[in-house]
Amino acid sequence: MNMEYFFRAVQDPNFFMPSWMKISVTVGLIVVMLLSLFIKNKERAIKIGLCLSLCQQFILYSWYIGTGYHLATEGLPLFHCRICMLGLAFAYFAKKEKLVNYFAILGLICGSMACIVVDLDHFVFPHWTNFSYVVGHYLLVFNAFMLVRERSKIQVKDIIIITLIMNLFILVADLSLKANYGFLMKLPSSLSFVPLTGVSVGVFISLLMILVLAIFNKVLPYNKLLLEDEEEYIRA
Fold first, then answer.
1. Which of 41, 45, 220, 232 is the most exposed, fewest CB within 10 Å of its CB?
2. From which domain of life does this come (predicted)?
3. Spatial separation of the C-alpha atoms in residues 212 and 109, rounded to whole Å
């Protein structure tokens, strides 16, 4: 394979992703989740998965920097999936259990959505961004799915605080760079029927995220309360 072609930075005007390819990505998502259920050494698998995710992110940002392709508006780690990929690795290795639990739930949701509603850069296959998109989200779902099954339940107030801080940071970047990271300035086409524009989109997405995360935090099984929450419960 011609590596220069694989890492090219000029979009293909005739780009088209057939339905069978989109379905294949979704089927692959299901396979990844099923395979994770049969892994015995979970701790080792999580560490390997997180390290592979970091390598994928490093190569991706190296490509953006090296080519200059939409670097400011698309090449920064400010999409929610990218934040989860980096956040999960940092939180896990730094033993920040609350953040691990938060990013595991968010990563599972965002990663799964990205594999169901596939939105690739307009480069005809094979291209690094196609490969990176699919592999990156598979790794995110794998890591998140492994961690969410070992998670501790977190409080709704923590979900609210983390979500608002994260989205405020993204929104400031969007306004400064005239970008649309996290779809906080313009809704995706699937939600185009919602009559919102500008900062109001960021408010809507933030509230929607808090609601969905709170529901998943309530519904998904968990092993224990966080240590600090358990201490508060005992004192009460």
1. 41
2. Bacteria
3. 9
